[in-house]
């Protein structure tokens, strides 16, 4: 385990089983010497949010740590499972596939060393085009349009193409980091970008500074059709999110959770969870999407096993975590 620090499997197991200790009492000799949080491409919400909470934890606990650019949720699950990353961020769709052994990166391997850490935010699926394109609705997207779906294997790339196919859109699929795709849209190399990221999306905010854009919403019928076919919920993008919006925009969304390698010491994970969950004002200053990074949303996780250290913090703070959903 490259980033989990130096602690034996036996010591980690004892710590996880015990699940006791406070920040002052914790035996830091078993803590990792450093940690890394798997995020996604630069220009996306994962990178800004993940790097921010990694730095907050590092500064508060005095442990070296930071964010790392990755391919996004699907890759983060694999890297956290193997221990190449201590922490990561994922959406619930790819998480279920990974736990059931259906990850496209490792078919047949159940990623049972991935544990839940804390709720993050909902990821809206939203579409952006240049105003000059004349594309104002999903039905306006012409056949063969060049659409950027984010990094290969990301939540956006996994689900958005299938969603648009369900809605009858025929397109030429493109991949890349959000910043790169934003530049390609502005240069006329793409017709549309289909984003799945917490709002406001940095790449969209940057685009608005440089060009006039259309934030394209789902119609009620399109929203229902997608919700019937995919593990998503209804969502509204507030008009205040982007200067290009004159009214709230209809969308769909999927929950995101922070994840941890299950072998991390319980008292270390307890302290990490405490830092994030007890400093929401600081989290919101990192990214506005963190408004929903609160303990009450822990219940949005119904299938990822909770890390014992994280579960202990929630139970101490009035959130009921079912015993059968805590990693043994």
What do you see in this structure?
This protein is of the alpha/beta class. It has 2 domains: 184 residues, Periplasmic binding protein-like II (D-Maltodextrin-Binding Protein, domain 2, 3-Layer(aba) Sandwich); 131 residues, D-Maltodextrin-Binding Protein, domain 2, CATH 3.40.190.10. Helices cover 34% and strands 20% of the residues. Strands 1, 2, 3, 4, 5, 6, 7, 8, 9 and 10 form a 10-stranded mixed sheet that branches. Helix 9 packs across helix 11. The longest helix is centred in the N-terminal third of the chain and has 17 residues. It starts with 8 loop residues before the first helix and ends in a 12-residue tail after the last helix. InterPro entries: TRAP_TAXI. This is TAXI family TRAP transporter solute-binding subunit. Keywords: Signal.
